[in-house]
Amino acid sequence: MEHRWSKRFKVNIEVFLYHRGGSAIKCKTYNAGSAGIFIKSAPDTLVKNTFLEVEFEEGSNLRHKKPRVFRLRALTVHSSKKGVGLMFLKPEPETLLAWRQVIRRARHQPPISGLAIKKSSLYPELSTDYMFASKPIAKSMK
Q1: Quick one: how many helices (H) and strands (E) in the chain?
Q2: Domain 14-112 is of which CATH architecture?
Q3: How far apart are CA 73 and CA 64, in angstroms?
Q4: Where are the domains of the chain?
Q5: Are 61 and 35 in contact (CB under 8 A)?
Q6: What is the dihedral of CA 102, 108, 16, 18, to 10 degrees?
């Protein structure tokens, strides 16, 4: 039975995993979504319920000349010989928007512009019904 909170896309994104402040482990995603990722190859030490940080680079764009680096807190939800499934834990709105941009680029889609992230039970800490990055926008855009 499927238990994911968001749709996953088959994309190959380079990420770095950090476990307990240790050195970075370079990995590639097999699939990714707004709420988590599946890593193709990960060390055998990443068992279920392991807390990690996933680091990714957004890349440069019109607003940011230099690539920006973000980190998402994550929890391993399953582990197998094929890889590790990670669920993100309460991402910041700006970090979540950057992650979604990275997924879109990996899928060769145009960048998101004027996107409203709808408040949901998945991210109840958002203070308004809709957010654009970290700025509230009109609630009437339902």
Answers
A1: 1, 9
A2: Beta Barrel (2.40)
A3: 23
A4: 14-112
A5: no
A6: 40
